[in-house]
Amino acid sequence: MWLLRPPGVYAPQGDSELLVEALADAAVPRGARMLDICTGTGVVALAGARLGARQVHAVDLSARAALATAWNARLRGLPVRAHRGDFMAAARGRFDVVTANPPYVPHMGTGGDAGRRARAWNAGRDGRKVLDRICEAAPGLLADNGVLLVVHSAVSDPPRTLDLLHRAGLKAAVTARRTQPFGPVLRERAHWLEQQQLIAPGQRHEELVVIRADLTR
Questions:
Q1: How far apart are CA 202 and CA 84, in angstroms?
Q2: How far is residue 96's CA from residue 116's CA, in Å, rounded to a whole number?
Q3: In the 8-state DSSP scheme, what is residue 139?
Q4: 124: helix, coil or strand?
Q5: 82 forms bridges with which residues in the sheet?
Q6: In angstroms, what CA-CA distances link 106 with 22, 121, 165, 199?
Q7: 5-27 residue pLDDT tens
Q8: How many CA atoms lie within 13 A of 17 on its CB side?
Q9: Which band of pLDDT confidence, cut at 50, 70 and 90, is reported for residue 110?
Q10: Phi and psi for 13 in degrees, rounded to 5?
């Protein structure tokens, strides 16, 4: 699918594709209210609208990403509203579906890789800077019987995501996986990741997972 993507906006990659597939498998209820966190070009938000969501709110810290999402939705006539800012500030009410492709790459915190563009992947030394906030916020974002779908790398500790979601009172499980070669960012950090024991020596591939969490009352 062709998408408007200004310079500096995260391009849809394997994680985006896996999340869209998981969203399709989740069977979005017709007329659902949806929130897409860290939307980038809006690719997942657009998929939700096409799958039957009546109202989709897409949030990103990047002004360019919010603009790209707004234009991509307008070009297709889809009910997606783009918001610039933190997802907790932009979210209003509760949602039947929440999707998230947050930054999840561990970051040493030094060097020239800390610009605005790198916000799309840098997530603190353990890769959990945004993931932990999403897990903690999930019960307050989801409507009754609502579904959260969040994608991230095995490098950033999926068992912790499951544990946080369970402790928050949600049913949670890994529902999709994909293994792929390291992209440019992980290749550049591979030796540091080895030193941190976040990957095995010589490992140059990552496993992506989608974790689904359900709020049932």
A1: 39
A2: 31
A3: H
A4: coil
A5: 58
A6: 24, 8, 21, 11
A7: 988 888 899 999 999 999 999 98
A8: 9
A9: low
A10: -135, -160
Other beta carbons within 10 Å of 190? 17
Domains of the chain and any CATH numbers: 14-214 (3.40.50.150)
Tokens 């959990």 correspond to what residue?
Answer: 128
* pLDDT for res 108: 78
Q: What are the two backbone dihedrals, phi and then psi, of residue 7, each rounded to the nearest 5 degrees?
A: -55, 135
Q: Contact, 82 vs 73, CB < 8 A? A: yes
Q: Which residue has the tokens 């890994």?
A: 174
Give CA–CA dist 68/82, Å, rounded.
9
Residue 169 per-residue DSSP state: T
In a 10 Å sphere around its CB, with 0-12 CB exposed, 13-18 middle and 19+ buried, how is residue 181 labelled? exposed
How far is Cα 194 from Cα 203, in angstroms, rounded to an integer?
A: 8
* C-alpha distances in Å from residue 138, one per residue of 46, 73, 123, 154: 21, 25, 19, 20
Q: CA separation (Å) from 187 to 37, 142, 199?
A: 26, 36, 12
